[in-house]
Amino acid sequence: MTQREKKILLADIIGCIFAFFIFICPFLFMLLNSLKDRKGAAKLNFSLPSSLHFENFIEVIQNNNYQILLAFKNSAILTIGSVVLLIIAGSMAGYVIQRKKGKLANATSILVMIGLMLPPSVIPTIWLLKFLNIYKSMFSMIMIETALNIPFTIMLYRGFAGTIPIELEEAAYVDGCTPKQIFMKIIFPLLKPVTATVVILNAVTIFNDFTNPLYFLPGYKNTTIQLTLYNYMSTFQNSYHLLFANIIIIVLPMFILFLFFNKRIVAGMVAGSVKG
Amino acid sequence: MNKNKLYSNGFLIPALIVFGVFFLIPTIISFYYSMTVWTFDSAKFNGIDNYIMFLTDPSLSIGIKNTLIYSILTSGFKVILAFLLAVFLTGKIKTKNIIRSAVFFPNLVSTIAVGITFTSFMHPTKGLFNNILESIGLSGINWLGAGNIALYSVVLVDIWKGLSIATIIYIAGIQAIDRSYYEAAEIDGASKLQKLKYITIPLSVSARNSVIILSFIGGIRSFDLIWSMTGGGPGFATDTLASIIYKQYVAGYYGLSTAGNVIMLILIVFLALPLQKYLYRKEEAIQ
Question: What is the ipTM of this complex?
Answer without folding.
Answer: 0.89
